[in-house]
Amino acid sequence: MEWISSTIDQIFIFFQYVWDFLTTGIYGLIKETMVILTKAALYSFIQMQIFALQVAYEAAQDIVGNIGVTQQIRQMYSGLPGEVLSGLSFFGIPQALNILFSAFSTRFVLRFVPFIGR
């Protein structure tokens, strides 16, 4: 008779485990699954943003190079007096202008990248 009571105890333990999982364990499972899915979505979004930025940067550099903006800027810059050129170079103005033109042209081209440019 003892084996019948131990079998019934094991059945009750099993059903109690199932009940505990359905009442509290399923919340933890769904929560962990959502956290993993959110991390995967964020990682994919960031990778897509980096890819789109690389594409936009290369396109912007080609467009600016083909239009001839850089040659015109260099020509105008070389026409300045020597004292002004040395002062601008001391403060890093040529590098700053280069960064600004690259950023503006990349931002403009990034608007035309599907699903990324807004």
User: Rough shape?
Assistant: rod-shaped
Strand content: under 5%
Provide the domain count.
Answer: 1
The SSE order reads HHHH
Describe this structure in words.
- This protein has helices spanning 2-67, 69-78, 82-90, 93-110.
- By secondary structure, the chain is mainly alpha-helical.
- It has one domain (2-110).
- Helix 1 (2-67) packs across helix 4.
- The chain is rod-shaped and about 110 Å long.
Short description:
The chain has 118 residues and is mainly α. Helix content is 87%, strand content 0%.
Helix-strand layout with pairing:
Elements: H1 2-67, H2 69-78, H3 82-90, H4 93-110
List keywords for this structure.
118 residues, mainly alpha, rod-shaped, single chain
